[in-house]
Amino acid sequence: MTPLHRLLTAEIAATGPMPLSRYMQACLQHPEHGYYATRDPLGRAGDFTTAPEISQMFGELLGLCLAQTWLDQGAPAPFALAELGPGRGTLMADALRATTSVPGFHAALQLHLVETSPSLRRLQADRLAAHSPTWHATPDTLPAMPLYLIANEFFDALPIRQFQRDPNGWRERVIGLSDNALCPGLSAPAPIAALDHRLEDTRPGDIVETCAPAQGIAQAIGAHVATHGGAALIVDYGDWRSLGDTFQAVRDHAATDPFAAPGMADLTAHVDFEALARAAAPAAHSRLTPQGVFFERLGITQRAQTLAQGLTGDALDAHVAAYRRLTHPGEMGSVFKTLALFPNGMPPPPGTET
Ligand code: SAH
């Protein structure tokens, strides 16, 4: 039994079954035993691989997309270039390198990183030292200036709650104990006003997921962009409206039981982009765009061809495979999506449309 397993078992024994959000929060963020507090989960040696770790093209094109948005908004100076959950700093390093030649962009930018993990903060510090980043625990403390922000695979790591529709309201999925083992169950049914709009498109037995922290963060970013200018590019797996159980655990690049070893596996859920877009008002939002389509519009094929000219053998094969992995609908091209937030009355960032 992991130390966190013992703590959670004791908590449930003392206070009763806990919502999934409490379980997910403890597993990922416990300061001593939480998944993100204790390791670098990314890359081949870690538990999962993300798009910026697959190819430099991902960060390059997102950086250029934000730089063009900045130019389209009149190149305000100074401005905050920010990332939520920057992982190893790879995406931001690629974005910064690709934008070196955008006139005025580097001179005007201040780099801000929102990250809770001490070990990942250290990696980011090494990688991005030349740009003297400022770290934040939440987006609430980002400076009051135009904000150009990227979040890749950030929102999927925030704690969700799950509700199952019942003829008499909704039953929450909670974690209790059975023979001292963690065991998911359902609470008694009750009406939930915040889910009234889901009575239209669900039937008894269906599961919907909510993520209050994600909505809070989208609200803060939307208000920031609407007040000070800027834009946010949110890339993640998910859909326009949550439906079904998408809670999952990944360890060593394979799916695993989320309740087997708390704190040892990455826990995620699909992102409900409609909830983010609604929370971000009064900022405008783009249409939800599949990752493959978005990167095709940003010119990934031309960029891939240019990079291919300098490669041969295994390196060329790996590059072609990475291009396919990012864009092909059977790989990351359609399960991953992009949502852009931007000020009302401004054009949407390149590659997105309203
Ligand atoms: N964006 C990176 C890393 C994705 S992993 C990439 O694409 O490779 C998720 C990242 O979000 C990690 O850096 C993790 O430490 C961070 N994170 C997770 N929950 C967070 C929270 N509540 N607040 C701030 N950062 C968080």
Structure, described:
It is a single chain. The protein is an alpha/beta fold and 354 residues long. The chain has a domain at 1-34 and 153-226 and 243-285: Rossmann fold, CATH 3.40.50.12710. It contains 13 helices and 17 strands. Strands 2, 3, 4, 5, 10, 14, 15, 16 and 17 form a nine-stranded mixed beta sheet that branches. Strands 1, 6, 7, 8 and 9 form a five-stranded antiparallel beta sheet that branches. Helix 8 (118-127) links the parallel strand 3 (109-114) and strand 4 (134-136). Helix 5 crosses helix 6 (90-98). The longest helix is centred in the first third of the chain and has 17 residues, at 56-72. The mean pLDDT is 96. Bound molecules: S-adenosyl-L-homocysteine. Residues 36, 42, 50, 52-53, 85-87, 91, 114-117, 120, 152-154, 157-158 line the site of S-adenosyl-L-homocysteine.
Instruction: Catalogue the ligands.
Output: S-adenosyl-L-homocysteine
CATH class membership of the domain at 1-34 and 153-226 and 243-285: Alpha Beta
% residues in beta strands: 15-25%
Rg of Cα set = 21 Å
Most strands sheet: 9 strands, mixed
3D shape: globular
Low-confidence stretches: none
CATH topology-level name of the domain at 1-34 and 153-226 and 243-285: Rossmann fold
Average pLDDT: 96
Number of strands: 17
Order of helices and strands: HEHHHHEHHEHEEEEEEHEEEEEHEEHHHE
CATH architecture verdict of the domain at 1-34 and 153-226 and 243-285 = 3-Layer(aba) Sandwich
